[in-house]
C-alpha cells in the first residue's frame, strides 16, 4: 500500500463521474467522500460527455443498466478517452442476461478502459471461460490467475478479480491481495464502491500497479479495521463503521481501534 498515493488523492480531491447502478449510489458517494474523492452521478445522455470532460476519472457500472443509459455510458467513456483520464468498467452481472452481454460488448468496442474490475464469474464471461454465476454473484470455481491475465490481454487493460483473494494483472505482471473481511460480502455495494476507489487512485497518475494495489489493499484493511470495532455486531453496524474507516490514514488502520 502506497500511503503517499492516498495522500495525493486526498489532496487533489478528484472528481469521479459515476454512471453506476441505482442500488449503490448513496453508499458509493459516501464511501468516496470519506476516502477523499468527489463523486458526481450523471447518467443523462445529453450531459454525459460534458460531465466526463470535467472529471478526473469515470466509472461505468452496469448493475441496474437500462437501454436509455447505455448511450450515455458510451459517450462518457469516449469523452474520458479523449481527455486522457482513467475510465473503469465494472461489468456487474454480465453473464446473467443477453442484454448485459450485448451492452458490455458495445462498451468494450467503443471505449478503451483503463481497468476492468469484477468478480471471477463476471471476468471469466468476458473471455468465454466457463464459470458458474447466479444473478450478479460468482458461485463457481476456476483458475482466477488465468482469467485475470486473459481479460487484461484481450482488452489491453488492467484487470482486477475481487474475492477472498484479489487478483490484479497489469503491465504483464500478476499481483494478489489478501486483505479484506467476510462482512464485505454481506452488504450491498461493497464491490461497486471499490470500483470508485480504484478510479480515484488511478486518477493520481501513479503507475497502475501502485494505484490498483493501493486501492484494493487499503479497502481490505479498512474492512478489517471496521469489523474489529467493539460495536460492530453484524452487517448493519459494519457498514457505517466501514465508511468511517475509509477516511482514516493507512497507519491508523493498524491501530485496530477508534
Strand content: 15-25%
Which superfamily, in CATH terms, is the homologous superfamily? Ribokinase
H-E string? HEHEHEHEHEHEEHEEEHHH
List the strand order in the largest sheet.
Answer: 2-1-3-4-5-8-9-10
CATH architecture descriptor: 3-Layer(aba) Sandwich
Distance between the termini: 21 Å
Keywords: ATP-binding, Kinase, Magnesium, Metal-binding, Nucleotide-binding, Thiamine biosynthesis, Transferase
InterPro entries: Hyethyz_kinase, Ribokinase-like
Protein name: Hydroxyethylthiazole kinase
Organism: Oceanobacillus jordanicus
Task: Note down, in words, how this protein is organized.
Its cofactor is Mg(2+). Catalyzes the phosphorylation of the hydroxyl group of 4-methyl-5-beta-hydroxyethylthiazole (THZ). It is an enzyme of class 2 (transferase). With 258 residues, the protein is α/β, with parallel strands linked by helices. The chain has one domain (3-255): UDP-N-acetylmuramoyl-L-alanine:D-glutamate ligase, CATH 3.40.1190.20. It is built from 10 helices and 10 strands. The strands form 2 sheets. It has an 8-stranded mixed beta sheet with strand order 2-1-3-4-5-8-9-10, sandwiched between helices. The chain has a two-stranded antiparallel ribbon with strand order 6-7. Strand 1 (15-19), helix 2 and strand 2 form a beta-alpha-beta unit. 52% of the residues are buried. The mean pLDDT is 92.
Amino acid at each position: 500500500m502506497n500511503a503517499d498515493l492516498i495522500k495525493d488523492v486526498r489532496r487533489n480531491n478528484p472528481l469521479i463521474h459515476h454512471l453506476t447502478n441505482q442500488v449503490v449510489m448513496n453508499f458509493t458517494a459516501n464511501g468516496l467522500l470519506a476516502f477523499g474523492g468527489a463523486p458526481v452521478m450523471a447518467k443523462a445522455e445529453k450531459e454525459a460527455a460534458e460531465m466526463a470532460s470535467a472529471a478526473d476519472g469515470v466509472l461505468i457500472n452496469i448493475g441496474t443498466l437500462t437501454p436509455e443509459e447505455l448511450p450515455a455510458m458510451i459517450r462518457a467513456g469516449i469523452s474520458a478517452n479523449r481527455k486522457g483520464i482513467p475510465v473503469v468498467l465494472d461489468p456487474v452481472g454480465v453473464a446473467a442476461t443477453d442484454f448485459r452481454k450485448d451492452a458490455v460488448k458495445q462498451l468494450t468496442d467503443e471505449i478503451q478502459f483503463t481497468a476492468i474490475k469484477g468478480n471471477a464469474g463476471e471476468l471469466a464471461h468476458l473471455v468465454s471461460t466457463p464459470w458458474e454465476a447466479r444473478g450478479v454473484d460468482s458461485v463457481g470455481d476456476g483458475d482466477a490467475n488465468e482469467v485475470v491475465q486473459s481479460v487484461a490481454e484481450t482488452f489491453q487493460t488492467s484487470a482486477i478479480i475481487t474475492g477472498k483473494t484479489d487478483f490484479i494483472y497489469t503491465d504483464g505482471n500478476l499481483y494478489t491481495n489478501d486483505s479484506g473481511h467476510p462482512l464485505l460480502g454481506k452488504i450491498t455495494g461493497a464491490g461497486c464502491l471499490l470500483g470508485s476507489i480504484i478510479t480515484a487512485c488511478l486518477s493520481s497518475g501513479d503507475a497502475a500497479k501502485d494505484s490498483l494495489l493501493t486501492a484494493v489493499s487499503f479497502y481490505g484493511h479498512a474492512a478489517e479495521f471496521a469489523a474489529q470495532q467493539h460495536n460492530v455486531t453484524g452487517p448493519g453496524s459494519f457498514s457505517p463503521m466501514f465508511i468511517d474507516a475509509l477516511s482514516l490514514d493507512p497507519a491508523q488502520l493498524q491501530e485496530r481501534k477508534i
